[in-house]
């Protein structure tokens, strides 16, 4: 049973010998160094290579990404300097950047599909060669047109721009949608040519612990039509999008399925996002959902190894016959997660059978 075979079966809604495991969100440099057997100096010289080696040691079937710390002082790919920079934006500066954006029509006219596809294939094949028998199935956080721009401009200025200047904000959204559709076109070609595995994790943090961060009416009016437009080429090629759902998405979950989402990843139980009821849902074509998860990095993985084992078994029981389960974590595995729990997670899944 090869790693890629195991994931391909799960992606096709079939049952492999056991649920596959996705890795790549191990944002804990000391744990990576311990697993891979490298020094701090060696790790920071090539965090991708050593992160990949840690995934091999654990036994991951596929990889979403490899966390590469921005600096030695950070454990994620974004630094505190990046956060401080985006929080320094004023509304006027945000509007200036919006006005400087090309029109969506210009983006469409300047798109060189052959050139961009060649670049995409080169990058994808290079990463797959590095991964060897582990399946490279990277997430793409720009595939779904975004509704919020706080990642670039901070919460206060971005929300004020949305509330006070809807037309420039709408231009920003349409620009994102055009670029997202171009990515979907490239993915569609790779899927048809059987190069890409056909399943992509995507999305943005639109919801907090109390529900959507902005009015659902705004999302339905402005974002949802753009999502349909952007994903159309990918869905027509048989591609499947797995939506990242941090926070409380209960109000929007059915609508995301209607828009073509094939599954979900995240599942904050403290926000009511239990897989127990989510696995009962079906796509428009009556297919079951694909579940990436649901091991919580804020509860289960901070507990004991016995907590981890129980959650692995519970997840299999809940999903069996109802959804296609691909084991993954709710979010990045940070340095406060004990290494013994990480090992226990992988080992318990690997020892399991459907």
Q: If you had to describe this structure to a student in words, what would you say it looks like?
A:
It is built from 16 helices and ten strands. The chain has 354 residues and is an alpha/beta fold. The chain has two domains: 168 residues, no CATH class; 133 residues, no CATH class. Helix 7 packs parallel to helix 11 and helix 10 crosses helix 11. The protein is globular, with a radius of gyration of 20 Å. It starts with a helix and ends with a helix. The mean pLDDT is 96.
**What is the straight-line distance between the termini?**
14 Å
Q: How would you spell out the order of helices and strands?
A: HEHHHEHHHHEHHHEEEHEHEHEHEH
Q: What integer value in Å does the Rg equal?
A: 20 Å
What low-confidence regions span 5 or more consecutive residues with pLDDT below 50?
none
Q: What structural class results from the helix and strand content?
A: alpha/beta
């Amino acid at each position: 049973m090869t790693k890629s075979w195991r994931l391909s079966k799960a992606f096709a809604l079939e049952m492999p010998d056991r649920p596959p495991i996705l890795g790549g969100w191990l944002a804990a440099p000391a744990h990576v160094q311990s697993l891979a057997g490298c020094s701090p100096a060696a790790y920071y010289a090539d965090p991708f290579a050593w992160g990949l080696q840690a995934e091999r040691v654990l036994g991951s079937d596929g990889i979403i990404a490899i966390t590469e710390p921005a600096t030695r002082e950070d454990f994620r790919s974004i630094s505190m300097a990046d956060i401080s920079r985006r929080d320094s934006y004023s509304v006027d500066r945000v509007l200036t950047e919006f006005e400087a954006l090309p029109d969506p029509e210009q983006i469409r006219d300047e798109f060189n599909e052959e050139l961009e596809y060649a670049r995409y294939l080169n990058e994808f094949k290079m990463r797959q060669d590095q991964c060897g028998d582990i399946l490279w199935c990277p997430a793409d956080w720009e595939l779904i047109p975004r509704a919020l721009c706080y990642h670039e401009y901070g919460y206060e200025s971005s929300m004020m721009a949305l509330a006070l200047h809807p037309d420039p904000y709408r231009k920003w959204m349409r620009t994102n949608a055009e670029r997202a559709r171009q990515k979907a076109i490239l993915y569609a070609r790779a899927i048809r040519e059987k190069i890409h595995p056909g399943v992509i994790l995507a999305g943005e943090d639109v919801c907090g612990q109390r529900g959507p961060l902005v009015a659902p009416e705004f999302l339905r009016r402005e974002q949802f039509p753009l999502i349909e437009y952007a994903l159309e080429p990918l869905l027509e090629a048989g591609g499947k999008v797995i939506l990242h759902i941090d926070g409380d998405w209960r109000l929007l979950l059915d609508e995301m399925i209607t828009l073509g989402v094939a599954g979900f990843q995240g599942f904050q139980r403290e926000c009511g996002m239990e897989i127990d009821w989510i696995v009962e849902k079906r796509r428009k074509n009556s297919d079951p959902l694909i579940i990436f998860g649901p091991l919580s990095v804020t509860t289960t993985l901070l507990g004991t190894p016995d907590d981890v084992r129980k959650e692995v078994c519970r997840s299999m029981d809940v999903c069996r016959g109802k959804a296609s389960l691909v084991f993954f974590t709710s979010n990045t595995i940070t340095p406060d997660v004990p290494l013994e729990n990480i090992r226990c997670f992988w080992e318990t899944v690997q020892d399991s059978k459907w």
